[in-house]
Amino acid sequence: MWKFIVKRLITGAFIVLAGAFVVYAVIRCLPTSYVEAVARQRASNPTSTKTYQEWLFQLNAVYGLDKGILHGFLVWLAEAIRGEFGDSWLFGVPVVQKFQDVVWYSVILNLITLFVETLAGIPLGILAARKQYSKTDYAVTIFALLGISLPSFFLATTLKYVFAVKLQWFDIAGLVGRYHDQLSTFGQIQDILLHMVLPVITLGMLSIGGLMRYTRTNMLEVLSSDYIRTARAKGLPERKVINKHAFRNTLIPLVTYMSYLLPSMFGGSMITETLFQIPGIGYISYQAITKGDIPFTMFYNLFMFILTQVSLIIADIMYAAVDPRVRIE
Q: How many Å apart are CA 70 and CA 77, to the nearest integer?
């Protein structure tokens, strides 16, 4: 197992480096020079003591933009290995500090969504498989297809129009209300949770549908297995057959599906957070990318590459945990 993990870590490191280089090369090949815009903005600041050319020279030297793409990437990589990602051009603070300030909003939002998704998606998928081709199965299938098919921006806009504009049950955007500071501690927590209802519904609808279909498909495959028929022939209660024998083996393919939740949890849900203006890592990264914040964009992409590789390694380890037949020599 340890040899396998080390091998995967080495392979993952090469993949991360290759992905970071591609992102860096694409940014360097953009026709618009964001560095010039930042230098011009800083030079026009009344408190600035440097000219436009001095700012331009300094920014290019700091981020290796005055060198070739490969040489510049190596300069950036050397700083990144030491944990130095520079200051965000858009937010004016160190990149790591800005990331630490906003990432937990995305984590909390996605944890709540994961709880709702798991609580609803897996039981409904099992129910649909147990009652195949019944009205319950068709209802669950239609609901799942709606969740998979609806674009997040359309669903979020519809929810905001109905529940925020028409019914006025929720605020249209933001994480807190205008009177948040005047509330008690319990009231502030309640205010934040109330603002997360629509984003959680948006993310949950998009995720529950896929999880239900995935669970149903795998449960049907397991229920047709010989050992399930043997268990039923021995007279075991149906609940014990489903919960003890079938469900455990259904978890095996679900491990792959659930492993991809880690990048989305810490990487944020860019579209949903942007539409609801939740100040998580997804929304902040969208602002940084659209404004040409090269330091933050590079850090965000590197973080996502690493997180994806870690999630895949965790998935492989979980395979061995849930399936006794899987043992890595």
A: 10
> What is the model's pTM?
0.77
| pLDDT digit string, tens, across residues 175-193 | 777 777 777 878 888 888 8
With respect to residue 328, please indicate whether it lies within any of the assigned structural domains. Answer: no
Token readout for 234 is 């021995």
Q: Could you tell me the CA-to-CA distances from 201 to 151, 152, 204 in Å, in that order?
A: 13, 10, 5
Do 54 and 114 fall within a single domain? no
Q: What are phi and psi of 87, to 5 degrees?
A: -95, 145
**Which residue range forms the structural domain that includes residue 68?**
2-81
Say if CB 254 and CB 323 are below 8 A apart.
no
Is residue 91 one of the residues assigned to a domain? no
pLDDT digit string (tens) for 276-307?
888 888 888 888 888 778 888 888 888 888 88
- Structural domains in the chain (count): 2
Decide which of 26, 54, 81 is a domain's last residue.
81
R_g (Cα) of the chain, nearest Å = 25
Q: Are residues 139 and 287 in the same domain?
A: yes
Which pair of tokens denotes residue 165?
Answer: 């504009």
Instruction: Look at residue 245 and tell me if it is in a domain.
Output: yes
Residue with tokens 């299938």: 141
Looking at beta carbons, which pairs linking 2-6 to residues 24 or more positions away fall under 8 Å?
Answer: 4/316, 4/328, 5/313, 5/317
